[in-house]
Structure formats: C-alpha cells, structure tokens
Amino acid sequence: MGNKKLASCMALLSVFTLTQAPNLSYAADMNWLESSLHQENGKMEADVTAHFSALNEQLLTVTASSSNAGVITAAASGTTVHFEPKTSGAAVLTVEGDDGTSRLADRFQATVTKLGDSNGDGLITPADVLFVYQVINGKVTVTETQKKALDMNGDGVLTAADASLMMKTYTSGSSGQSLAPKFVVEWSNVNDAPVLISAPDPQQAVTDEEYSWTLPENTFADIDEADALTHSASLENGQPLPNWLTFDETNQTFHGTPAESGALKVKVTAKDAENETAETIIDFTIQEKVVNQAPEVTGQVPEQLAVLNVPGDSIDLSSLFSDPDGDSLTFTAVSLDESIAAAAVNGSDVAIQPEGIGRTKLKVIASDGKASAETFIDVRSVEVVPGGWIDVTTKQGASSVVVDISPYFPQATAIELRSNGVSSALSGKVVTYLPGAAGTEQIWVISSEHQAVRITIHVVAQTGSSFFFSEYLDGGNGRIALEIYNSSSEKTAGYTLEAHLWDQTAGKRTVHSGSLFDTWPGNTYNIINSTFYDYFDLTSAWYYNEEWNLWGPSQYPVAFVLKKNGQVMDVIGDPNGTGPAPIFMNGGTITRKLGIRTGSGSFQLLGEWDRYPSGTFQFMGRHTP
C-alpha cells in the first residue's frame, strides 16, 4: 500500500514548550481525529470507539503503535489511544480495533516540526533567521502554513521580532538546539485497504423463478472515512457472471431468473479510491423448480356421532389427506349447519362440538399453501335419553347379554344400532350381545328422532370363586329360595353367607350370617325361606340344605353376600346401600348365565344373569353350567 498525504494545512494556534500541548494541524480526511483528540502537558489522547463503529463495541480491543517512537510515541488503554511528540520528524501511527471476529486497522502520519525550523533539519540556525528576513523583504514567498510555522511570537505576521526570537533560541544552546523546544504536529492520512467484516450467507435460487438479493451493508468496511467503496462481482475465477445473473454496483443487488440448476461461486470485490481491495466468495445453489402437486384425499371416516352436552371426539385429519410432494399441510373445517354441530381445528385435529340434534356435514380442507383438496365428514348429533347411559359387565364365555330398550323408546319405529363405526337397523327393541375377548365395547341405540341410549359392555376374565350364586327366586308371600353352585372339582369349605334384610319396624338394614356346610363338586347348596312350605311342590328340587328367616311381615331381603375367610366371593343386590330397595320390586327369578363359572365382587344383573317373571320356579335345584 502506498502512503497518501492529502493535505498539509497546518493551523498553528499557539506557541508553547514541550510541557505544553502541541500545536496541531489536520488534513481534510482526519476529521475523526480532530473531533476526538484532547491535549494536555505535551501529550494527546483520543477515544476511538466511534471510529471503529463497524465492530462490536462490547468486545472491542484497541492497540496503537508508532513506526518511529523517537519522533512520536503511540499507546492504547481500553478504547483510548495516547500520543506524545519527542522531536522533529515523521512517523506512521497504526491504531487497530479487534472484536474477536473482525479486525480494522487505520494508519495515518504524524509530522513533528520544531517551531522556527524553516528547512526541516530539526535545528534553529542563522539560516532560518536569514530565511525569515527574506520573507519579510519579499524575496521569498511562503504559504500561510509555512508562515505560521515561522511565527515565533504567534502574532499572525512575520516581522523582525520573529527573527530576533529565532536568534535568541539559536544562541541559547551550544548545539544550536532550543533548551525548551516547541513543536508543531501535522496529521495526515495514510490509505488503508477495505476489509471483509461479515461473510454473506450462501444463496439459493430456483429455476424459472425471479431471484433478487442485496449484499448486506456490513459485508465490507474501510476505516478511511473519506473512502467510498465501489463493488463489483464476477465468478470466482474472474470470468463474467452468467447471462441470467446481473449485479447492480450502485445498490449492490444481484438479480436474475436462472434457467438451469447448478452451483456457482461468485466473487464480490470492494475497492477504495487507491484501488486497494477486499473480496469474498459467495456460494450460489440453483435448484430445479418443483411443480407443485395438490394434496389428495386418501382416506375417509364413517359418520361421526356427537352427543349433546358431551364434549365431542377429535378426528386426525392428516389420516384423510396426503401430499404427493411431501409438503406440510394445514387444515380448516366448517360445519354446513352450525345449529347441529360446530368444528374446531387444532393442528391436524378437528373436534366436533354438538349444538343440537340432527344430521349435518363438516367440510374439511387441506392446503399445502399453493393448492388444496377437500372432503366431507358426515355428523349425526344425538341426545341421550334419561337413564340412557347403561353399563354392563359380563364374563368371557358367558351366554348372550340381552338389553331391553323398549322403556327408552316407547314410540320409536326406526331404531339404528351402531358399534365400532358400523351401523345396522335393529329389529325389535332388544339388543343382544355375545361376549368375546376381554375388553370394552360401546353400542349406540339411536331412534329416528335422534334420541339415543349408550350401552357400554365390559367383558372380563373368569376369575374369582368357583362357589357362587347360581339362582335366586322371589315368588311372593315368602316363597324365597337361594341356590349356590360348586363349579370346581373339589369340595368347598370355609364359606359363610350374609343375608342383608330391611327391617321395616326399625327402618334400617340388618345383617344375618351363618357358616355353610361343605358342598361336593357339581352340587348346589339350596337355602329357602322358613315359610316356603310348598317348595317341593313348585320347584324341581328334591332337597334343600338350610332354612333361613328371610321374609316376614316386617322384613325382606335386599342383598346376599357369599364370603370365604372374610373376603367377598359373590354378591346379589347392593350390600353397601342403606335404603329399603328390595332385590326385585315385584318379585321374579334370576339364574346365572350359561358359561359363568365364577362369582363376582359386585352384582351384575344385565351382564351375568337371566331374569324371569315372578312365579318361575322350574330352574331351582338344577343349575346348568
């Protein structure tokens, strides 16, 4: 790099010795230093934070050095630089800023001249005195800057008084040098090359699509404030840019529409007025334009059931659509009749919110941002009738569960069954379900008026006691009998029976219990009420094991509990209740369903028992497993 001295415009403000501040003169492009330099006691300092504004101020580290410390010294502390002139001469000073990522350095020249030294030899001699007289007499013409450098008394004009002061200075020392030298410091710029501050990110373009990108302002920097950078672009090897790509040097913008895919390495060069340069390489990737393909409907769901006053289920809409390009899809949904049901989309899920009863559709749209596809989801909103939430627990291997729904739909003529998304018409008003594998299944029974009953069937494994209640009958007027069956291959032992009775006189429940005799495998244990006198006449039984006082004018059974070693093995009725409700309001007979081989911890009338009207006596004493 070559030195560049732009001006020598010395502005001598005052005359002082080395113990005073130097007299300063600034070149036109040294304004940054003139505005920040302070001087005191022959020394100078300046804060350079603003001068390095292209760098991170929080991480800025500053250093300073002089090419000739004998003429002027340079040092830095923090972001402040310090200078001290020593003698006549010239030195190049370097101030450098570094933020750990980028580095900027500014070089400038300090020319130190002893006041009164007309020829720059560093001495004041009679030759300098003679030169002043020649100027006074008009024999020599000097510039204003030179005149101020010879103005020893600082009155703004050259007179014999200045020549006299020079001679006194000369005669004051045997070497011809002043005992108390006075200096003039002239600052001038030395050109600095631009530098790369922040390398641009790689660029991507797409064939047949317009591309435009502007080089960031902080890509290059030049510490010389007067330098305006010009920018140019070429391929990395110096060849011109391809025809499709142009670079506007005025606003540093790339523009064009590529026709083919591929890769380019583009070199951007920043140049200052002295032709000093900095450059960076930018990777360009041109991708083949992909013609967007619209999303497709690839799935469907059966008619969705919504229940009034019950939070609706959600449907994963992503299962209904796919995108051939693999684009991410966004979903919207709207109900065609929001008085029946509304739709709320969250991500890819849509929740159905019932508002009334009837049928409607949800219009569902999937979009990839450029194209879309739509489909419809049928929705039926129903209202569950009072008491229409029916829970049934049965066991694997049991015979069919039968639920009479006529009390819930006394007027309905068209009834639909719906299970696992499959609908069918119900013939009659009885729902029959054959238990299979363990698990839970829901069956909806829906009338044409959109009234509904939900039957939830829980199928559980055959666990529990193999000595269990197999029949209970209440034929009225004390004709009460209880049958317990041993389905195991061993004789029973250690069982007790609790009879929970409602005492009408006391208005509370009482519990009577007793131990049971051992029962052989395959046999029944029959207990009858003590007033069931025609037991053998009405039933097929040929024996009973015990008589218990189960019924009378002031008491009747509300529950039975079979226990072993204090643990509940089987139950009829509700032993945990406190009220007077009998097992049957109007009497009747229940027998354990075929296939039931174990007892249960709670009474499951619909799931484990077959019910018959009062007066059904023929099953007593002969359980069919």
Quickly count the helices.
6
Q: How would a textbook summarize the main sheet?
A: 8 strands, mixed
CATH topology of the largest domain: Type 1 dockerin domain
Radius of gyration: 54 Å
Protein name: Putative Ig domain-containing protein
GO molecular function, one term: calcium ion binding
GO cellular component, one term: membrane
GO biological process, one term: polysaccharide catabolic process
Structure in words:
- The chain is elongated, with a radius of gyration of 54 Å.
- The longest helix has 12 residues, at 160-171.
- It folds into 5 domains: 23-190, Orthogonal Bundle (Type 1 dockerin domain); 195-287, Sandwich (Immunoglobulin-like); 296-377, Immunoglobulin-like; 382-460, Immunoglobulin-like; 467-612, Immunoglobulin-like.
- The strands form 11 sheets. Strands 20, 23, 26, 27, 29, 30, 32 and 33 form an 8-stranded mixed beta sheet that branches. It has a 6-stranded mixed beta sheet with strand order 39-38-35-34-42-43.
- The chain contains 6 helices and 43 strands.
- It is mostly beta strands and 625 residues long.
- Strand 5 and strand 6 form a beta hairpin.
- It is 7% helix and 44% strand.
